[in-house]
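Standup notes
- HV: blocked on the assembly model, inputs below
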Amino acid sequence: MDLSFLFFISSGLFLGWSLGANDAANIFGTAVGSRMLRFSTAALICSVFVVLGAVIDGAGAARALGSLGGINQIAGAFATALAAALSVFILVRMGLTASTTQAIVGAIVGWNLFTGAVTDTQTLMKILITWVACPLLAGVFAVLIFKSVEGGLHWLRPHLLSLDSFTRVALIVTGAFGAYTLGANNIANVMGVFMAVSPFEDLDFANFRFSSTQQLFLLGSLAIAVGVYTYSKRVMLTVGSKLMEVSPVSAWIIVVSHSLVLFLFASQGLEQQLIALGLPSIPLVPVSSTQAIIGAVVGIGLLKGGHAVNWRLVGRIGCGWLFTPVAAALICMLSLFVLQNLLHLSVAREQRYLISEASMERLEAQGFDTAPLQVLIDIEYSSARQLVTSAQRYLPLSNEHQQQLINSTYHGRFFLNAHKIGNLDRTWLSDEQWQALNALAGQSFAYRWQLQEALADHTKAWGLKPDIPANKYFNQDLQQKLSYLYRLFELEIPQKNRPGRY
Amino acid sequence: MNMKFPTLFSRASKIERKIDQFFDKVVMAGLLFRQAMKLYILHGVCAEFEDKMAQVEALESESDQLRREIETELYVHTLIPDLRADVMSLLEDVDVLINLFEAGLFKFHIERPKFPQETIPELDRLLETVCECVEQLIQAARSFFRNMEAVRDYNCKVQLLESEADKLSTALLRHIFDSELDLAHKIHLRYFVERIDKLANTAEDISDRLSIYAIKRRI
């Protein structure tokens, strides 16, 4: 096994470990805190279902490469995962509950700052808004569910002991489900970026295939399980009893509200239905399970008058939330600096942005006033930020325009290798899409959008539809497929072939 | 792992049954006490009185056994972790009542106090009120497990009956001490009146604690 693989994957495993220590506590914290489940039982259920979720369902999420998708060099991924894991670890060490999502977002922003990539401010704003909306919504859900459960119990009048048994089973079932989703959704963050360097090979047993990705994910999920066993107890007690003494039924209500919020922000099915009904949809962005849990606990605490809530601890956790992304960004930048300048590793793939006549035409077609940018034609930029800074000297650009400029001028070499096309998952593409790809086999393109246009010329199935809510899901799905193709077919251009740069 | 779902539910219903049986025994002990006292008032210590007393004694040891089994099950299987201490105290408190019934009958059997005829109607009313008070307390305790809102209603009745019993016992004592009986006899009767009244006082104390348990039981 390659030593560098072991070195790089260690930070992914560390991130997995902190995810286990922190996020597992969110799922089972109230159950263990209210003494409905023993820690050992909770840890066992959690570990088993995290592993199952990661191995069975993790691959789907990994195709989109999760939040770390933008990071294109293994050393960069190493630093980002390390930064996120360290900042979560600091908080977990203090017995507070951290937000892994915030840590990852912070670390990515750190990577963007260091490598000169431009952060999509619109997406970042969406994520920041959910940082407020998510705990609030979880709190509201908790209150509503609490009221309905109270009404239901008043009507059904179960015996105290039957209620106890039902609650216990409900806590186990929802906890197991939560652990499964945790494994399925987060394994891509932990292990996704290491897929390219994985030394594992597909294993075939009788009728069953254990793919290299699944083996990698098994490793990652085992790291999560180790995190659960070794370090999650303290955080569980913080969530489940120190923040507020929760009754068993409230413990269940809290977990359910948290899961509902996560589901709302992650369900494509729900978004499609909302769009179909002509209703405004909910942004599909990564939300923090920690914030959802704390929001739900505080919601129930307030419903009961707010006296039982340990507000001091709530304050400390809130400060921790502000600290996490900042610390993650700083640690990320520091480790990138060390990797790049002391260990001489490449932390981001060489990028080229080139405004050519062709890209000008495309920008014009998108309603861009290109005249002021004519002076920039044929100048090459090595980072998106340099390109944007330079362009803004001549033309003020909105966030949307910045993204359009970056997308239209990213210059590379996209070669449609027939072998790679053959290896694509057939079920993931429609027949038309598949045929179009095969027809273009052997061709190469300089811009991503040229590849996309060539595909769209072959079949409408590769063409983006007008940007109206009803088409949102189709376009999103297509964009996801296209990004995967871009990553797959892009060839690294050797340094020496580069012309002079800005 | 320490649990299987079907076992979990059957265990719960088994303990539910035991708790119900425990309360049944207290209620039966109360009824037998009342019947035994009626017999005592009419015939003094007779064979039927002794029979009732033996039944109460048997019920007392059965209820003790049940209480221990319930407590062990609750602790061994960590059931109702947030409330099991309260449930245990409740069962132990209620068990005190059955002990009081048994001990009361024993005292009557051994010391055979002689109540003057004119105090009998008052003694009868006191006994009636005290037994009713204990019955209402048992209803409250049962409700704690199934219908929390009813706990408050039953507790109100317990408090009302207890103050009624206080008034009746005071009146009875006054009647006894105003009579021509000698002092030793008066003091002997006072001991028994206070012993009967103690049942209602104990029931009220339990109902006070039960109100707190009920608040804690809210989800």
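- HV (later): unblocked. The radius of gyration of chain A is 24 Å. Chain A touches chain B at residues 34-36, 38, 41, 44-45, 146, 149-150, 153-154, 157-162, 164-165, 168-169, 247-250, 253 (CB under 8 Å).
- Next: hand off to the docking folks.
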